[in-house]
Predict the 3D structure of the following.
Amino acid sequence: MYAGYLFDLDGTLWRGNTLIPGAVETVRRLQDAGARIGYVTNNSTQSTEQFVAKLTGMGFPTEGCAVKSTASGAAAYVAAMGIGSAYVVGESGLHASIKAVAELTDESPEAVVVGLCFSFDYEKLKVAMRAIRGGASFIATNRDVTYPMEGGNLIPGAGSVVAAVAAAAEREPIVIGKPEPTMILQCLDELGLRAEETLVVGDRLDTDIESGQRAGCPVHLVLSGVETVAPLGMAHSLDVNGLA
Ligand SMILES: [Mg+2]
C-alpha cells in the first residue's frame, strides 16, 4: 500500500470507451483505504474538464483527486511562455484548451501545437511545416506512436502525427506529456505527496514508466494496454486489479 497512486488512463483504466473490469473497484478500494489518487494522461483529445466528466461518468472517484491531460498541459505551457497565437493540429479538446490562452490561426502563428488528430491530412502537415520552418515554436502533446483500443487493437497515436510534422519541418518538438516528469511532479505537488511514497501505474514503458522513474517514484506496469511483456524485475500485473 502506497500513500498515493497516479494512474494512466488509456490501456490502464479503460480501452477506448470500455472499462477494464474491476478498475473502478480497485481505485475506490485504494481511496477508501486512505490513498490519494491522481490521473495522468498523455491523451490530448479532451481537456482536463472533459476527462473529469468521463472519469466521473464511469464511476471513478474524482473528488480530491488530481487530473492532468496534455491538452491542458500544452495550454499551460503556451500561457507560461507568453505565446500569443498558435496553429493547432489536434482534436476539439486541444483546440478548446489552446484557444483559452492564445489566438488560433494558420497565418504566421507563434507556435504549432500537435496532438492526436483524427482528421490529419497533407494540408495540415503543410501548414504546420511552413509555420515551424518560418520560426514558430513546435510543441507536441506527447510522442506515443500507438493508441490502445478495445480488443487489444492499436491505432496510430499522437506520436505518429508528431513524427510526420517533425520530418517535414526537420525540427524536434518540445514534449509536454510523459516521459517528461512534469505532469507527475504537478500531481505530487497538488496532492501533497512525496515521490517515494507514490506509485505510478501505466501500460507503456517509454512514457508512463519512464516518467514515473524520472520523477523518482516507484512504478507498476500493467499488461492491459500497449505492453505485453514486463522487463525482468519490474513490478507488474495483467491489469490494475493486480495492484497489491
Ligand atoms: Mg496508456
Q: What stands out?
A: The chain has two domains: 4-69+178-242, 71-175. The CA atoms of residues 108 and 134 lie 8 Å apart. The helical segments are 23-32, 48-58, 70-80, 92-99, 122-133, 158-169, 182-191, 205-215.
